[in-house]
Amino acid sequence: MKSAHWCATVALALVVANTAFSGSINYETARLERRLKAVKTPEKIVLDGSLSEAAWSLAPAASGFTQNEPQEDQPATEQTEVRVLYDNDNLYVGIYAHDSEPQRVIISDLKKDFSQDTGDTFKIALDTFHDERNAYLFSINPSGARWDAQMINEGREVNVNWDGVWHVETRMVEDGWTAEVMIPFKTLKFRETDVQSWGLNFERNLRRKNEDSLWSPVPRIFNVQRVSLAGTLEDLEGIKPGANFRIKPYVVTSFAQDGVGSRRCSPYLGSSDGKRLCNTDAGVDAKYGLTTGLTWDFTYNTDFSQVEADEQQINLTRFSLFFPEKREFFLENSGIFAFGVATDRNAPTGAGGSTSPVPGGGGGRQGANISDMIPFFSRRIGLSDDGSPIPILGGTRLSGRAGRYEMGFLNIQQKELGAVNATNFTVARVRKNILANSDAGMILVNKEVMDSSHFNRVVGGDANFRIGRSLNINSYLAKSFTPGISGDDLAARGSAVYKDNVWDLRSSVTSIDDHFIDEMGFVPRLGIQKYSGYFGRTFRPKSVQRTVRSLSPHAQIDYVVGPDGGLETRYIDYHFPISFQNSSFVEVGINPTLERFTKPFLINRSKDIVIPPGTYSFDEYFFMGRTDSSSRLSLGARWAKGRFYTGDKTTYGAGGTFRFNYKLKMSVGLLQNRIALPQGRFNTNLFTGRADYSFSTNMFLNALIQYNSDTHQWSSNIRFNLIHRPLSDLFVVYNERRDSMTGGMVDRAIITKFTYMIAR
Questions:
Q1: How far is CA 625 from the centre of its chain?
Q2: What is residue 353's three-state secondary structure?
């Protein structure tokens, strides 16, 4: 790695470090003034959403919410009042969301972990350790749907798969809606002191106006996750966190059939070995709160049969596709094991981001939003390269915090399956909070193949610094250890990001050596040095502010040098997105690309079409857009055209979502690539159809139907979920795959899974 490359990153940091942050509110002063007293009540609070108990009228109200969108620092257009009560067991939050047009309140969903962007919502952030870094997030809508998450380092990691035991009831009233939220103290972790204060903030989204307002104000580029600007909940006395002991046994049964009608175990079951007759299986998960900050988890005969199927992708690149983790055990507390910068892995490629109704409908090239190196990628455990389950015997995880340290330890034992030996996987992570809101840490990932001399290890260190409110500097260095390989086995990165209300500036340098082998991670390509830059500016023209919220032109360049020192990839984009006040957007742009490679690669298997080695330069012109996602009918489209290796490619994408009511929603999406090369012509087609029906806030039916022309298969995944008691579920799942050429069945399975949470 050349020192000049690192100097470029540091130079950007020095240039932008002194840039002033603008705003008419002194946010530091405002947050200190936002103080709310929690009132202890001997009165029993009946959770009915009515706020009728006398105790509510005795508690002081949090009011005077301030917009951060669309009119930053201006008073909210509708009044909101929030009160907090507590008793020995529970924290109660009472919400009165006034609305001058209550008939226009938008309720888009009832399902658990509902969409936060398509309807009216109210969010609560609880910084229970008052460390101004981490918080629990709770969100509701006017029909009582629930969403919860754990947030680490002010949103650098948000674990939306965290599930807590809490309850909510809502009620529509003449001038808005009211809600009562009950959060048992045993759901939360906090210090055991006689009197304590927590960080606290509230955020309300008034969807028909696309307006966000907060009790303790924050700049528009942030949201309620910015807990360093939160207010304070005072005078919580005599409360204690629960012992947090949970045990969750499960029973699962399945029936499966392959294309010739023979009965066998389902390929979708983690406990299947592909040979045994189908029968009933069982396992257990357990959780114990070792301290107020550390949790110890155990799992035995782990099963993931209820997990929704992966969303299909079409691969037109030389590199492996990235499929996100969806299994609950690995998602819980996953932020603690994250290494480097989370936004490298999840940042949207265009204004449409991940909310585009078009499959794969980002504005940039395929895979542009995936990091060049993720040292621990949990899909390497219990899943083969093609996504087929490999049975897991069990494992343990210790995660949480102790003082200024955050730590995680994970050990999983994977069973033998066919030619795959039994394998043990270990991850150890420690991170220390330093300075005001920075951290530094180390990670170890270790893979040991049983009955074999093979192992693979990676050790690394990272540091993340926040300077002021807008500048972040991040770096990591990692080394791999593999038998028979030595030297050229490092991976490193340095980056600087500056973002305020106007400017978005980023620069990074990444180096991954030829022999950096990470069998527990995701590393698309080796032997590269990558230089990246991003320059964006946001305009909010007052002349069109009734319609247009922002114009955000930006340019990005990725410059990748290969193992021989020559240019391997050069990707540039010039994009011009326009965001409207109702959340719809349009974006146009051009993506000039250069690719050089020395080995041919197979781009279409069915027609055996191969791209020969060489240097290829091609431009892609594109247009994409999406209508208001809160409307009953929302539509999206993408069109792109340009040169593609030795020929041409045209992309058509279209999708839409229709919300019949807040219980039933259906969506469809189609993405087609028409590719004409001298070696041959071919089309790729990807179809996705979804239907979601919520019987109530505890009972749901979801269907996902997909077609992928690469695999010539139709796949169906239908799931019924009943939450029969907190964190306890009944799942009935039907999976089927059919050959699109013959219409014949490839396989199908019916799975029933019952879980029962016992907590103390």
A1: 22
A2: helix
**Element housing 31 (H / E):** helix 27-33
C-alpha to C-alpha distance for 145 and 143, rounded to whole angstroms: 6
Strand partners, 414: 392, 423
Per-residue pLDDT tens for 231-243?
999 999 999 886 6
Q: Are the C-beta atoms of residues 587 and 624 closer than 8 Å to each other?
A: yes
Reading the block at residue 310, the tokens are 């992966």
Cβ atoms within 10 Å, residue 54 = 8
Q: How many of the other CB atoms lie within 10 Å of CB of 120? A: 23
In angstroms, rounded to a whole number, what is the distance separating the alpha carbons of residues 129 and 277? 51
Q: Evaluate whether 299 touches 329 at the Cβ level (below 8 Å).
A: yes
Measured in residues, the chain has a length of 760
What is the Rg, in whole angstroms, of the alpha carbon atoms belonging to the chain? 26
- Contact present, 623 and 638 (Cβ < 8 Å): yes
Could you report the per-residue pLDDT of 295-346, keeping only the tens digit for each? Answer: 899 999 988 888 888 888 888 988 888 888 888 888 877 888 888 765 443 3
Q: Give 380-406 pLDDT, tens digit per residue.
A: 999 887 777 889 999 999 988 888 898
**Three-state DSSP class for residue 140:** strand
> Tens of pLDDT along 123-163?
999 999 999 988 999 999 999 999 999 888 888 778 887 88
CA separation for the pair 588, 622 (Å, rounded): 6
Of 696, 692, 649, residue with least CA distance to 668: 692
Rounded to whole angstroms, what are the CA distances from 180 to 48, 50, 183, 681, 691? Answer: 7, 7, 10, 60, 30
CATH 3.50.50.60 corresponds to the domain 34-237: no
According to CATH, where is 2.60.40.1190 located in the chain? Answer: 34-237
